[in-house]
Amino acid sequence: MTARSVEDCASVSTAQQIIFAPVAWSNDLMHTSYAAQRCPHPAPAQGQQRSSVRARAASRAELCPNGLTVHYVSRPDVAFLYDEVFVQHTYTSHGVVLKPGDTVFDVGANIGVFALQAASLVSPGGTVICAEPAPEAYAALCDTLAANSTLCDSVDIRPLNVALGAGSASTALLTTYPQAAGWSTLCVDDAETATNVTAYAQLAPLASVVATAPASLRLLLPLLAPLRGTRLYAAAAEHIGRRMLRGSKVVPCTLFRLSQLLDACIAHVPGFSGVALLKIDVERAELDVLRGIESREQWARIQQVVAEVHDIDGRLDAIIALLSSPLAGFTHVQSAQPASLRGSNLHVVYATRLC
After folding, report:
1. Would residue 81 count as lying in a domain?
2. Whole-angstrom distance, CA of residue 259 vs CA of residue 328
């Protein structure tokens, strides 16, 4: 491996201490407060502690059609994510395979819907490491895992309240949206988000659009159904998107590189040999996540990648080129646009290493 500076080595050591703190990470911790046991930040001040309690109290739950319980910050996320993960199988198609004992990195874990699917596929004996920087979504993620402890008991699931990126910065500013927690981002572009919501509302099945709209607007959309495809309906859809962006908050978050997470796993996860699947859904920060891998040796430890990509300024081509390059070394890279994303600039990139 390439030589590291003293400062870089110190940074890796700090990452290992924060991510893999000296806590027994057995699954019985799911019945305690993940935020208290595993939060990577220093002990909060009194006011911050009250804020953390409010974040956890805001987490509500919904029973999904497959019997799993999902806690949420904004209810529309549940229907959209359930369809994306368990109906369309967005992250487990196009040649992506998971088996018992595998390790999955879930970057942008949100409220834990994909983490549950991953846990079911790598059980028994697998590991799912979930990175979610938004405080409210992280609390809901931990509650989701705790609520499904029967599924999770045979899997080592490690939720981390961190973001992943590139460069040497150790902190970043995260914009969160209380009415649309899944859109939290390090790279704000409200106009692009509103455009994508409009496209989704125009093309997705009406039942899906209604399910993912705020409760206050669910009665309006069926009345406008005959106008789908018209400017009036598009304007209503854009209004919904912009309304869901209201009340945004900017919060600091801890930032690591993917290379640091890999090094920490090598040092602290028993039997870790590599990542079967790196899943990325980070709202315009996906290229930064991938650029956080520093060497060909580290790339070789990742067998499959599935990333939601916002095609802005040629980003889709850039990510395909990176994954296809000798550095990353994937032998089969393709992009697709699931039905729920058609008409938007969102695509999903799949990278695998074919034997």
Report:
1. yes
2. 13
Higher pLDDT, 326 or 205: 326
Which of 58-67, 192-201, 322-331, 346-355 is predicted most confidently?
322-331
Q: Could you give the CA distance from residue 152 to residue 26 in angstroms, rounded to a whole number?
A: 11
- 15 belongs to a structural domain: no
Dump pLDDT digits (tens) for 257-283. Answer: 999 999 999 888 888 989 999 999 999
Measuring CA to CA, how many Å separate 203 from each of 4, 186, 206, 208, 316?
50, 28, 8, 10, 22
Q: Residue 103's domain is classified under what CATH number?
A: 3.40.50.150
Under 8 Å between Cβ of 99 and 122: yes
DSSP summary character for residue 286: H
Per DSSP, the three-state class of 59 is coil
For residue 336, being part of any structural domain is answered with yes
Domain range for residue 211?
46-355
Closest CA to 164 of 330, 307, 312: 307
Exposed e or buried b per residue across 213-230, where buried means at least 16 C-beta atoms within 10 angstroms of its C-beta: beeebeeebeebeeebee
Judge contact between 284 and 312, C-beta under 8 A. Answer: yes
CA 137, 141, 146, 152: dihedral to nearest 10 degrees? 180
Taking the CA atoms of 27, 30, 33 and 36 in sequence, report the sign of the dihedral they define.
positive
Work out how many domains the chain is built from and give that number.
1
Instruction: Write the DSSP assignment of 87-152 as a string of letters.
Output: IS-TTS-TT----TT-EEEEES-TTSHHHHHHHHHHTTT-EEEEE---HHHHHHHHHHHHHTHHHH
| Residue 49 CA neighbour count, 13 Å, CB half | 7
In a domain, 130, yes or no: yes
Greatest alpha-carbon pair distance for the chain in Å reads 65
Q: Residue 273 corresponds to which tokens in the numbers above?
A: 């040999």
